[in-house]
Write a structure and sequence with these properties.
With 154 residues, the protein is mainly β. The chain has one helix and ten strands. A hairpin with a 2-residue loop joins β3 and β4.
Amino acid sequence: MRRPLLMIALAAPILGWMGCESDARIAGVSESPDGVVALRWGRAGDGLVFGEGTLEEGQLHLEIPGSPPPAAFRGSVAVGELVLLPPGSEVRLGQPLRDELGTSNDLAVVYRVGESSEFVGFPVGVSCARRSGGSYERIWCEGLSVRFGDPADP
């Protein structure tokens, strides 16, 4: 009888890494125009898109369907940014985003699977953070106030 429990205990971290955990959600408000919101893990130009939502009538809703792709991780952490696209835009994993209207320059989505000296105090899994200088401050992923700035601004 102990063997099935041991197998479940050993499989849990592997299943979590593969994205079998429950979906994560980001919700908030924004004064930006309506559009499609994509979650890009990594920097513009070489980031991987994994997560999609909407901004309609000032209400932002985004679903994260599990763990980002392995290529998005630097060590045990992946950091993503929200990207606002025109209404009707199609978001596809591995494809560049077109016609970006803005990025959430001060907001980051953090996915941690192990220890990280940069993200001490962040739980394993999805978290949201505000960027301030070169550091991150953990914040709630619900009730965000999101500002989409010019995608060319760092």
